[in-house]
Predict the structure of Helix-turn-helix transcriptional regulator.
Amino acid sequence: MKEKKLGAYAFRFADQAINSVAQIWSVGWDEQSSPIYNWSGLERKDINKCIFQYTLSGYGKIDINNKTYRVQPGQAFIVHSPSDYRYYLPDESGKWEFLYLTLYGHEAEKCWNFVKKRTNQVIRIHPESSLIQLLKQILSEATNKKITNPYQGSSYAYQFIMGLYDYLSNMDHIMDDWPESIISAVLFAKNCYQQEIGPEEMAEASGLSRYHFTREFKRTTGLTPIQYLTKIRIEKAVQLLQNTKYTIEEIAVFVGYNNANYLNKVFQKVVGMSPGNVRKHQGDILSKDFFL
């Protein structure tokens, strides 16, 4: 999906048993440049639908329960119809380019209720996150006419719902008051920690100079960039050690280290014990128990 391929795709599968669990209603890539673009959650006819819309460029606005939110690149809103919302292109915005996915079924409804409890319905999501990559995959499959039956549609809908649960469960609300540059760097680290990245790449993601970024990052988070990245990797490694049967070598590679030996050195320094001992003490060691 390197080239811009605007398009909208609707699915009207007839199998109610499958559809009632989770199903795709529509998916698309759109760009609006007219203030005529305006959707009200109390007036639209496609009821009992959950709408996920992710901004790629430009921006739009959404009113939810008498509050107005600006939905900028890297942000998404999640709404349910019917409910009290209105999203639109404001007069001062030249365009709003976005991806969207509309789902229905009782699993989509359950996820929507979870969203309402966890967020204000407008959330930041890094463009390289697995959730957005999945959305792009669904759109690509729709574009190439590869979603041809209700089982395929339901499978993608359920994958996206589970991905959204996973993302929201790990979302850090402490970032709400942080500068956008630092948020961008943190989201980059959270979504790309498996790769060979470091402070230089985090600074690039922030849009700041390396020197300014390092000072601003430490002032905001209380940690240096490398400490924060290491914290992310160790937390994930602890989860994998305690909840999977992957080898330590496999876990090391998965969290962004070259080998088990290097992971062992980091664990000894940060956690105070080896990965093997962490695995033996399941339930006794939580990521919140150690600080860098």
